[in-house]
Amino acid sequence: MTDASGIHRTRRTAHRGAAGLVALLLLLLACSAPGGAAVPEATQPAAFAWTDAFRSDGSRSDERSIGETGIGETVIGELGSGEPGGDRSGAGYPDREDADVLEFGPPTAPPTTAVPLPAPEPAVPEWADRPRLGIERLRAEAGGLTRSGARADGSHYLHGTVAAEWPINAQWSARLAARVDSYIQTGDTDFERTEADYGESFLRYRDPSRRVTLGAQTVVWGRVDELPPTDRLSVQDISRYVLDDVEDRRRAVAAVRWEEFIGEYQADLLYIPFFRAAELPPEDSIWSPVDRRRGRIIGQPEDPLLAPLVRDGHFIADDGGRGGWGVRLSRTGRAFDHAITLQDARQSLPYYVLDPRVRAALLADPTDIPSALAASPTTFEARHPRTWVVGGDVGFATERSTWRIEAAWLSDQPATTDDLRLITLEAVEWVVGTEFFPGDREVRMNLHLAGRHLLDAPQALLDRENVFSVFGDVEASFARDRWRARLRFFQGLDEGDTYLNPRISFLGWEPHELSLGYYYFGGEERALNGFHSDHDLVTLGWTVQY
Questions:
Q1: Where are the strands (E) in 226-264, listed by range?
Q2: Where in the chain are the domains?
Q3: Are 179 and 160 in contact (CB under 8 A)?
Q4: Where does residue 221 rank: exposed (0-12), middle (13-18), buried (19+ CB within 10 A)?
Q5: pLDDT of 236 above 50
Q6: How many other CB atoms are found less than 10 A from the CB of residue 255?
Q7: Is-contact 316 378, C-beta < 8 A?
Q8: Which of 128, 265, 400, 450 counts the highest number of beta carbons within 10 A?
Q9: For residues 463 and 126, which has the higher predicted lDDT (pLDDT)?
């Protein structure tokens, strides 16, 4: 999983030493004086080319490359008079009178002086400092459900993003973005909802050593692609469950971010003053985490005691208050990258808790559901618990693959006992992943093994104490990269939990992309994908990105 705030290049200036400046002045004087030595064309200095290599976790590795000819070597002059037939007596040359000495091979090369010259300044387009306004992305997708048990026939989606960018000067820039999303569902429970939201909109300062961003931004920490355990400060978007890639399942949040670059190290500080909860689908949507028709909440087993409360109860959300903060220190090396992080975070995804008064009435008489519902105006509350996060990640490459390992300890994770009581437990999450090209550079495979463990959990628990899964994707390009086939997959190992998404895309009509996909969900009742087992979907999509 990679910094979704985007890639912004930083140009560094090479500082010369005092000796280099003196040598340069001498060279200029020699070239401008009568009879001065000219700089041979073959030894013109190669310019410095700066490249910013950004990794999936958002860290930066600045590399400076020099042309094969190296820094220009300028011949100042030969020893002696400087004339072709001049006096060569002295150190390194035999006297002319010494006729008995025979020299074989090429003549001794004259001494040279390496003089680094500054790289030419790149040409700045006239429009570089002007505001730019335009459409960033448009997307349309039509989907049809294939199972007869679904309460909908179609699930369709429209999306558009517009943005304005203003490079104020060399250090300051501004961005303003907005998005519009439309969700359309047809069938037994149909609805249409269109909503506008802000995108990444911020004021940014940058210089060769730091980058400071103030405003709405999307920050995804971690190294693995799909489920990074240390990604706890980003705002998730599950309005379409997991139909989209992870970069499309995040929303911007108002924050202050300070990135400091110190050699191979990067210090990343993020402060979120106001909490923003995850973006949820409408209650009538098939992708909602609460299914009132069946009396089910995602991640919980079917319970005849809870079912009537879910169907007829009242839900509220505790989604206000303070956000959180975090710091991440990473190092980018040639063969080994690593990072550590400390965060005070709130879970953006909701955890549904039964009201204590409703619980007390229900335990007193489990058969009297109306009295339990009347015990409180609120039946369930969607909470976002605060937790401390301590984690880290490493990445390294072998001959044929790239490896990523990430883990996090969480101080307070919510869970529900079998008597419907809320408790918090410590938890550990980890992911080990590898990326490789099996036999053909046109085929890429990402494979991850993941685990989640609730520590010191009691026996009677509705939540799963240990979860093991394998997930990833396989991607292949063909027909001169005009077509791309991809398979995303997720499979639970301890319990049945299956997600498959084969998709084929046509890329030959740039900047447009046409795609045909299929989504399969299956598994046991407590599994996330088992909850959506009736929602298999065939989609036809169009995307244009500028």
A1: 235-236, 250-251, 253-262
A2: 18-114
A3: yes
A4: buried
A5: yes
A6: 26
A7: yes
A8: 450
A9: 463
